Amino acid sequence: MRQIQPRRAEFEKIVANDQQSFHWHHLVCKQFTAPYHYHPEYELIHICRGRGSRLVSDSIKHFGPGDLVFIAPNVPHIWQVSPECPEAETLYIQFLPEFLGAEFFKTPEMQAVWELMITARNGATFSVGVREEIAARLKKFPTLNPSERLLELIAILLRLSQSPGIRSLGKDINRARLNQREEERISRAFKYLNENLTGLISQAEIARSVRLSSSAFSRLFKKTTGKCFMQVVNDLRIAQVCRLLAETDRTVAEIAYGCGFETLSHFNCQFRRIMKTVPSNYRHKLATIALGKLRA
């Protein structure tokens, strides 16, 4: 097999039709089929239904309904839907930086949007209130004509740029340059993690499944994500724990064991490392916030 010249995650060419200068789509499916990839367009993606895990730059997190992420050009990313989800649904928009002209977003009127684009250079997400507002606007896209969609896109970008809760997802790192075989291996490894997160996960088994030695797989994984393999596993598991603490009344121990942690001591150590607090305090804080919203 001919070796492809080294590059980053798989390139995706996006073609807008002749009635629009940018691409938008409403997708309903069992699984998102895009591999670990990148493209020269900005992308705004909203998850309507479905849960799973996403990798954006070096940020590896769970996603669920309401998730909204803005991604800059050439940032590698992948969304994997959890196998227990019956169906996933997403609305997303993709546009080239210069689709309205090379200097449009650098005009004084668009200064805030330009700053948002800089913030999104490694991916960005937003506060709950903003996510809900943008989701409602995106759902109207199918009913709009092309001119109205363009105006609505600009309005959405302006609203996002005014959000007080913009959070950068990744860090400024030297992103790995991968060849095609490495890209395929990372996609398969991430799919394995997504499907087996709550069970026993073996780095050696994943390495064998992608036809690498354990040490070679470890180097490739860290080269791609900037993190060691077990750190990523623990990050994903804690993200799932946080969701269950918020959405269920199960005990902390039940949630910890159900999310794949074998001992409570290890779970508590990882939770404090990532969340900078203990599970009971985290749940209490969520309950306090929810009560405040009800009283308001």
Write the topology of this structure.
Layout: E1 10-11, E2 23-29, E3 37-38, E4 42-49, E5 52-56, E6 59-63, E7 68-71, E8 77-81, E9 88-95, H1 111-119, E10 124-125, H2 128-138, H3 146-161, E11 167-168, H4 180-196, H5 203-209, H6 214-225, H7 229-247, H8 252-258, H9 264-275, H10 279-295
Parallel strand pairs: 1-3
Antiparallel strand pairs: 2-9, 4-7, 4-9, 5-6, 5-8, 7-10, 10-11
Helix pairs in contact: 1-3, 5-6
Verbal overview:
Residues 1-8 have low confidence and may be disordered. With 296 residues, this protein is α+β, with helices and mostly antiparallel strands. The longest helix is centred in the last third of the chain and has 19 residues, at 229-247. The radius of gyration is 20 Å and the shape is globular. Helix content is 43%, strand content 17%. 32% of the residues are buried. It has 10 helices and 11 strands.
What integer is the average pLDDT?
85
Residue ranges: pLDDT <50 for 5 or more in a row? Answer: 1-8
Give me the secondary-structure category: alpha+beta
Strand proportion, as a percent range, falls in: 15-25%
Label the overall shape: globular
CATH architecture verdict of the largest domain? Sandwich
Physical arrangement of strands within the biggest beta sheet: 2-9-4-7-10-11
Q: How many distinct domains?
A: 2
> Largest sheet at a glance?
6 strands, antiparallel
Distance between the termini: 63 Å
Individual helix count: 10
The CATH topology of the largest domain corresponds to Jelly Rolls
CATH superfamily of the largest domain: Regulatory protein AraC
Relative helix content: 40-55%
Order of helices and strands: EEEEEEEEEHEHHEHHHHHHH
Find the count of extended strands (DSSP E, 2+ residues).
Answer: 11
Top CATH class of the largest domain: Mainly Beta
For the CA atoms, what is the radius of gyration? Answer: 20 Å
Oligomer class: single chain
